[in-house]
Specification:
single chain, 35% helix, binds zinc ion, CxC5, CxC5 like cysteine cluster associated with KDZ domain-containing protein
């Protein structure tokens, strides 16, 4: 029979000291209930004993645990309001009549989960954490207008996924300002703007996020798990939803893929805007669809590229060193030697030097060491490269436009009319029927058919399989970018070889994601190359990135096409700031192969010259026997880890619209940067006061004297 309040009163009167603080008493009561399984074990053991042994180990433990409960300090109260601790007496006392106490409360062998028998969790209330309107000025008695409960739609029953991964039903209540009629939801505020429209602003520290307009809410902690799953397991939206559903295993409710994506976009819209310092003034249409929100956020944090928040001013011991100057005149070693690499044999017959561009000096000016007490500056090294992480774009080669329809469309907004002309360029004749992609020319129809047969049936794993086979057979020569490309044999069309036929039969992809990161791995910025990783595109990428931060340019950029880039810069404009701010260097492997044939590469791009001309890149240390050894000053291996981590997202990204792609890359860069910054702190690699003193030429010892 269920216990009534009367029984509870008796229990409190009989077993609990009246001077015990109320939080402590209720806590002891929950602990008591949780001990019930131990009492069963105790009674069972007594039954078996031939002679009645009054005490068992079980009962001993019950007593100890009860006493601890009376002492538990986490409740933050002075448990015994009179100051006299009577835990010992009372736990003894309760234990003597424990089975009667359970009977009074109505706990029996059939009670499931006795601990939550009395204290069920109430249904969560979802309401704004604000009290007053944030828009309206103070009114009567200088008070800000208070929020009232909105009249329309009193309490709404919604589903909520709790922080402990359970679906529960919750009550949503919306607040409203009586003056301006702004609606206050737990995660957003909507308000009227001129023209009968409403806009919304985000609540940045919202504890719950709405993931469906049909009343589904998710605790922010779940969004954090999603964030961690992305970082640790490369988990996409659908994977995460599947995992949540496997874990909650609730027959009534599950998280859909769309809701998982919505959670991601809601959570990271807030994270990105906060990280980029763009929360003030951000708004979009009220109750916006997730694509609208994502597009709006992308507009603010960077479309088709972006700078990672805080990265410009990043510095740590692994990417930033005090500037070093060349000591003395003696040059031991070879200007074209590379520290840590054996010189490869150079066939003199192959040497056909490409000369330096005319406006490039043959001898580099030497930097003089500043006088003691003068600032000597610092150097930062960055690593740049292109990664084969793509999204689809317009089928016309020269067009960078996003597709109107990413599911199965081929053209951007501006080129939609191309749907009605032949897909073989430059035919230009109208298509033969509404669903055709070529004109009525039989050779065009036939060429398209064989193209379809070769290509369209290949799925992404299929393409990868073919590439692996081609690589194994050694017939892949276009291994330029990370990740080889697929080569498919196509029939010739008239005189044009198959692979040279220009057509619009399927959407194209961007060429690569271009990233630049500090040597320690902190990403600085990203952008896209559309047709190839061409030097003009790469130059415009870095110029755009540092446009607002000319004084924060890296001292070194390691890039596998640094020589081409440098040649391009110097031919374009011999006074370009890049030529004085930054040295572009290649990796050792490229250098050993290229130095023989390219004087620019040999004289400007050596990653670690052995002649002492680049003390910032090469350290000379004396060992115990007095022999000098040269080592690289920067280790770029950590910067490479970003690449392998990003590669794990390739198949997810290639399915995405340009908006989702950009949003996702922003998120990945934000997360990666945060993790590296955490590692810098954990490993104590921050720049110290001594470092800055040295950079600024301040001698503390002298100052102390
Ligand atoms: Zn108001
Ligand atoms: Zn760093
Ligand atoms: Zn286009
Ligand atoms: Zn045609
Ligand atoms: Zn080169």
């Amino acid at each position: 029979m269920a216990a009534s309040v009367q029984q509870l009163i008796w229990i409190l009167e009989l077993f609990f000291p009246p001077e015990l603080a109320v939080q402590q008493a209720l806590y002891v009561l929950t602990v008591l209930l949780s001990l019930y399984p131990l009492l069963r074990l105790h009674l069972n053991q007594l039954n078996e004993a031939r002679r009645q042994a009054p005490r068992t180990g079980w009962m001993g433990s019950i007593q100890v645990l009860l006493k601890q409960a009376f002492h538990e300090e986490a409740n933050n109260v002075e448990a015994w309001t009179t100051g006299i601790d009577m835990a010992e007496e009372y736990s003894d006392y309760i234990c003597r009549d424990l089975d009667r106490l359970y009977t009074l409360l109505g706990v029996t062998d059939d009670t499931k989960d006795p601990a939550s028998f009395l204290f069920r969790h109430p249904r969560p209330i979802l309401a704004t954490s604000r009290l007053n309107c944030k828009y309206c000025p103070p009114g009567d008695r200088n008070l800000l207008p208070s929020l009232r409960r909105r009249r329309k739609g009193k309490a709404q029953r919604v589903w909520m996924l709790t922080a402990t991964m359970q679906w529960v039903s919750a009550d949503l209540l919306v607040g409203q300002c009586g003056t301006c009629k702004a609606d206050y939801y737990p995660d957003t505020i909507t308000k009227k703007v001129p023209g009968r429209k409403r806009t919304q602003e985000l609540e940045y520290d919202a504890e719950y996020l709405r993931v469906s307009k049909h009343g589904v809410w998710v605790h922010r902690k779940i969004a954090l798990s999603q964030e961690n799953a992305l970082h640790r397991f490369h988990s996409g939206w659908s994977n995460f939803a599947d995992w949540v559903n496997d874990t909650t295993n609730d027959i009534n409710m599950s998280l859909t893929y769309r809701q998982s994506q919505r959670l991601f976009i809601e959570h990271f819209s807030r994270r990105l805007l906060v990280a980029h310092g763009k929360t003030v003034g951000f708004s979009c249409e009220a109750h916006a669809r997730m694509q609208v929100l994502a597009a709006k956020v992308r507009e603010v944090v960077g479309k088709n590229g972006g700078i990672i928040a805080g990265a410009m001013r990043h510095g740590c011991m692994d990417c930033t060193h005090v500037k070093r100057y060349r000591e003395g005149e003696v040059n031991v070693g070879d200007a074209a030697g590379v520290v840590g690499s054996e010189p490869g044999p150079i066939d003199p017959a192959l040497i056909q030097e490409e000369p330096l561009p005319a406006n490039m000096p043959h001898v580099l000016p030497r930097q003089e060491k500043p006088a003691p007490g003068q600032p000597c500056g610092y150097t930062r090294l960055s690593v740049m490269d292109g990664k084969s992480l793509k999204h689809h774009k317009c089928a016309l080669d020269d067009c960078e436009g996003p597709l109107v329809n990413f599911k199965n469309g081929r053209f951007c907004e501006a080129h939609l009319d191309y749907r009605s002309i032949c897909g073989i360029i430059p035919c230009g004749r109208p298509i033969v029927s509404a669903d055709a992609v070529t004109c009525d020319d039989p050779t065009h129809i036939a060429w398209h058919k064989q193209y379809e047969d070769r290509f369209h049936r290949l799925s992404f794993p299929g393409v990868q399989r073919v590439i692996r086979r081609q690589m194994a057979a050694g017939d892949d020569h276009s291994h330029q970018l990370r990740g080889p490309s697929l080569q498919v044999q196509l029939q010739a069309l008239g005189d044009t070889p198959g692979e040279k036929v220009v057509h619009t039969f399927k959407a194209k992809s961007i060429y690569c994601l271009q990233t630049i990161q500090w040597a320690c791995g902190v990403p600085i910025a990203w952008g896209k190359c559309y047709r190839s990783e061409s030097t003009p595109q790469v130059l415009s990428f870095i110029s755009k990135v540092w446009a607002d931060y000319p004084e924060l340019r890296p001292s070194f950029v390691v890039y596998d096409k640094a020589c081409d880039l440098l040649r391009h810069i110097v031919t374009q404009d011999a006074t370009d700031l890049w030529l004085t701010s930054t040295k572009f260097i290649v990796d050792a492997w490229h250098y050993i192969g290229h130095q023989a044939t390219d004087v620019l590469c040999r004289t400007r791009c050596n990653p670690a010259p052995t002649d002492g001309s680049q003390p910032d890149l090469v350290l000379t240390e004396l060992d115990d026997h007095g022999n000098s050894h040269q080592t690289r000053a920067f280790n770029t291996e950590t910067a490479e880890q970003l690449n392998s981590w990003l590669n794990g997202f390739e198949s997810q990204l290639r399915q995405m619209t340009d908006i989702n792609y950009d949003f996702y890359i922003h998120v990945l860069m934000l997360l990666y940067g945060e993790k590296v910054e955490k590692r810098v702190i954990a490993k104590n690699r921050q720049l110290t006061q001594e470092f800055w003193d040295e950079v600024n030429g301040i001698d503390r010892m002298e100052m102390d004297e």
